[in-house]
Amino acid sequence: MRTDVLSFALGSEKRKKIAITLLEYPKRQWSCSALEDMTKMPHATVYRTLSGLKEFGILKSAKINKKDVVYELVSSPLAKELERAVNIGKITSKKIAKNFANRIKSKNIHSVALYGSAAKGTSKPESDIDILVVLDKKNKILEEKILNIAAQISSKANKTISAVIMDVNQIRKEKGSTFIKSIMENMELLYGKSPF
Questions:
Q1: Where are the extended beta strands (E) located within the chain?
Q2: Is the pLDDT of residue 127 over 90?
Q3: Which residue, 40, 161, 52, is CA-closest to 99?
């Protein structure tokens, strides 16, 4: 039963996206159309996924009028197992990022921050791990060392670390840029003080 529900829910990217959305809002009641809007998935895919998850006992449904049905997550061992399976990718990316941050720690590094899909928890197996490394001041030798460590860890983990290296002055100059704003919105500090 356990492997059946995992292979059903995670067997396609579309069903996985629907399952992740349901798990992100565990107390919410979902209509099929609300889930379609949120995930940008076709009605048939959402309906089949909801029906399948209901059969496995992960969702319960209730009619709110003659034709509308809402679905809600049920607290069950299978739901917890599905949540753990969905979170494995997130945990792996974060572990790799923390390992990288620990390997590059030095007195000349102001901060190391995870950003992008890994920080948001929406990374896919093929996603890069986006990391911002902020130096106290420009240092070509240290930058090269950081990039070499990123390459070593990427090779071992079979997951690309995409390290952006900036110094504190560059961060100040770029603070209003779209790139820096997007990092500020969803970063997770791995080492040091916030660069912003």
A1: 29-31, 59-63, 69-73, 109-115, 129-135, 161-167, 188-192
A2: no
A3: 161
